Amino acid sequence: MQGSGSAVLRDSVLARNNVQVRGHGDRTLVFAHGFGCDQNMWRFVAPAFESRYRIVLFDYVGCGRSDLGAFDAGRYDRLDGYAQDLLDVCDALDLQQATLIGHSVSAMIGVLAAVREPARFAELVMIGPSPRYLNDPPHYVGGFEREDLEGLLELMEHNYLGWAGALAPMVMGDTAGPGLTAELEHSFCSTDPVAARLFARATFYADNRADLARLDVPTLILQVSDDALAPVGVGEFMQRALPGSELHVLQGHGHCPHMSQPGETVAVLDDYLRRRHGGQA
Asked: Which residue ranges does the record assign to the AB hydrolase-1 domain (predicted)?
C-alpha cells in the first residue's frame, strides 16, 4: 500500500479487525480464531513464539473487539467473506509467505484465502479442521446428521443463551475444566447474536471438500483423538485430500487443544516450524 489513501485504508482494516502485532523475527505467524471466539483464545500458545516470530492476531468482523459497524450480512453469509477479512489483514500488513495457524473454521477460511492468494502463505497449520460437518454417506463422515445441526441452529435462533450453554461443553471437552468451558460460553454470549447466527450457518453448512484439491500450500493437520466436532476420520480424509500434508493426532478430549492442551500444542507447532524453517523455531 502506498500513499495517504492507502495508509487510511490500512489503518481502517487494522482497526476494523482489531489487529494486534507483536514479537520479533523475519517470519510471521498469523493466528486465526474459530467460530464464536476471538484472538484472546491464543494467549496460551502465541507468546511461546514471540521471541522468534512476528505474531499477528485479529478478530473477524462480528467477533471479539472488531468493529461491529462493519458487519455486512451480504458479505458474511459465506466463508468467503471471512477469507476476505484475512486477506485484507495480510494486505494491510504487506504479508508474504506467512504461516497461518487457523483453529476450526479458520482452517477452511485459510484454504479459501490461500487458493485466492497463495503467495501470502508459506504453510497452513489447521487445528481441528473440518471441510464438511454434515455426514455424506457412504464415503464421508463429518460427524453430524442434518437434523442434529438444524436442531442446534434452531436452539440458537430461539434461545441464544441456552445454545451457548449447550455448545460450550461439547466444544471444550469434558476434561478441560469448568473455567475454560465457562470462558468459551461467555465468548459465545459476548458475540453479537445476529453475526453469530450468520457465522454459524456459514460454518456448519459449508462444504469445502472440493477446495482442498485447489490448495497448493504445505499443511499440518492437528486433530484431537476425541473431538465431538471434528472426528479423527475427518483429519484422515483431509490428509488423503492434501498430498504431502502431515497429520498429528493429540491424545485428549475437545476441540480447542490450544486452550485445553497448550503445552502439547506448542510442542507440535514448534517441531513443525523448526522443520519448515530450518531450526528458527
From this structure: 28-260
- pTM, two decimals, is 0.94
For 4-25, what is each residue's pLDDT tens digit?
557 778 889 999 999 999 999 9
State how far the alpha carbon of 270 is from the alpha carbons of 15, 113, 256, 265, in Å.
30, 24, 18, 8
Helix residue ranges, H only, 67-222: 79-92, 105-116, 146-158, 160-172, 178-190, 193-204, 209-212
In DSSP terms, 219 is beta-bridged to: 124
What's the confidence (pLDDT) of residue 258? 96
Q: Per the structure block, which three cell numbers stand in for 119?
A: 503467495
Give pLDDT tens digits for 167-225.
Answer: 898 899 876 678 998 988 888 878 888 999 999 999 999 999 999 999 999 999 999 99
What is the bridge-based pairing of β-strands 219-226 and 121-127? Answer: parallel
Q: Quote the crossing angle between the two packed helices 146-158 and 160-172, to the nearest 10°.
A: 130
CATH number at residue 187: 3.40.50.1820
pLDDT tens digits for 36-49? 999 999 999 999 99
What is the span of the domain harbouring residue 30? 3-276
Note whether residue 126 is domain-resident.
yes
Kindly list the catalytic residues. 104, 227, 255
**Any domain includes 191:** yes
Residue found under cell 447466527: 197
Q: What is the per-residue DSSP string for 20-41?
A: EEEE-SSSEEEEE--TT--GGG
- Residue 281 belongs to a domain: no
Q: What is the 3-state secondary structure (H, E, C) of 89-122?
A: HHHHCCCCCEEEEEECHHHHHHHHHHHHCHHHEE
